Known about the structure:
This protein has a 6-stranded mixed β-sheet. Strands 7-8-9-10-12-11 form a 6-stranded mixed β-sheet. It has helices spanning 22-38, 58-74, 90-94, 120-123, 157-178, 297-305, 333-341, 374-385, 392-408; strands at residues 2-7, 15-16, 19-20, 43-47, 79-83, 104-107, 124-128, 134-140, 184-190, 225-229, 235-237, 239-244, 261-268, 271-279, 286-289, 295-296, 319-326, 347-355. It folds into 3 domains: 2-279, 4-Layer Sandwich (Purple Acid Phosphatase, chain A, domain 2); 286-357, Double Stranded RNA Binding Domain (2-Layer Sandwich); 373-409. The chain is built from 9 helices and 18 strands. Manganese (II) ion (MN) binds next to loops.
Amino acid sequence: MLRVVHTADWHLGHTLYDYDRSAEHQRFLDWLVLELEQRAVDVLLIAGDVFETANPPVSALRQWYSFLAKATERCPTLEIVAIGGNHDSAARLDAPESLLSERVHVIGGLPRRNGRELDMERMVLPLHNAQGACEAWVAAIPYLRVSDLPRVGKAGEQSLTDGVHQLHQQVFERLFQKAQAGHAALAMGHLYMQNAALSPDSERKVLGGNQNPLCQELFPERLAYVALGHLHYAQAVGRESIRYSGSPIPLSMTERGYMHQIVVLQVQDGALKRLDHVPIPRSVQMIRLPDDGYLPLVPLLKRIAELPDRDLAATDLPYLELRVSLPSAEPTLRSQVEDALESKAVRLLAVRTEYTGGGKALADHSEALDLLQPEQVFCRAWQRAFEAPIPEEVLAGFHELIELAEQDK
Length: 409
Ligand SMILES: [Mn+2]
């Protein structure tokens, strides 16, 4: 029997507005090591987006390597397989390969031999139980960039998804050769699947801007389990055995209601025997006032007054987002809000305003441009200049540019 834990989308180095999340991440990592130890887990699968950015801060790198060292030390037979996601720099994740323990496999980018044929040995890996016997094989396919894909048919969107299918088929062919009777065949991927629930505030668009979702036919029935990353909401797609584990901490206000979890699997005799969701303790709360919609300033200030007062020794105060509706620009909004919050046990993230009139600017005094997603700014600029909505291919091109820019950071 093989015990497997599936997690993804850690986004180490994440900041929420200007608040550093490293303490929340560290609590998750400490909790995870304990879970791995107490549950006698054999294999940990991390399905991409280890880091928030291609060039993460030193503190995030330290968290990653400390975790790998601590987990392999505390769990002397644990095997770890991690793939790169669209936020990660493939090269940065791959760089320390020769220094890592033999029980840690990191596949940052699509591995090729001499820059040519796929390096199947790096992507199709045996998984062992505590006695050292092979019980499963995993096809660990990192996030695929457009340049990774074989050219299929004519240029355009169809050829992108065809390229993804062709590449997966190739890898699965090798996987099924390796996985003999009694071995379970598992897969990992970092991609966007059809009919899945999105978290648009923190997931960056992939493969030409999410216009190319992949269907569950990508994953043959013979796969006992598919561990996916990219979407931050934990969910099954198509079959119960094709899952996103979701992120371990909320990466935006939109994710405040998610049940963050790890997926714990038991694999036996080549098949998935059991699947459990283990909730991850939330170390910092997130509050949006009002929870739904917007409130005029006076009733909103009244709601703020009802918040608990701060205990001076308190750390990890909840994050707060305020949503106020205003009939016109209110220059004293910020100071009124700050006065109301002075003794309150919260950390203010943002004040979102909705004007009951028309004539919005790209950003106003309470909503700095750098707090908006690049796509929001682009959409607003487009709408200000043109009457027609943005054509899909323009938006897809924009997302490709964003991806390129992020990789070069
Ligand atoms: Mn992600």
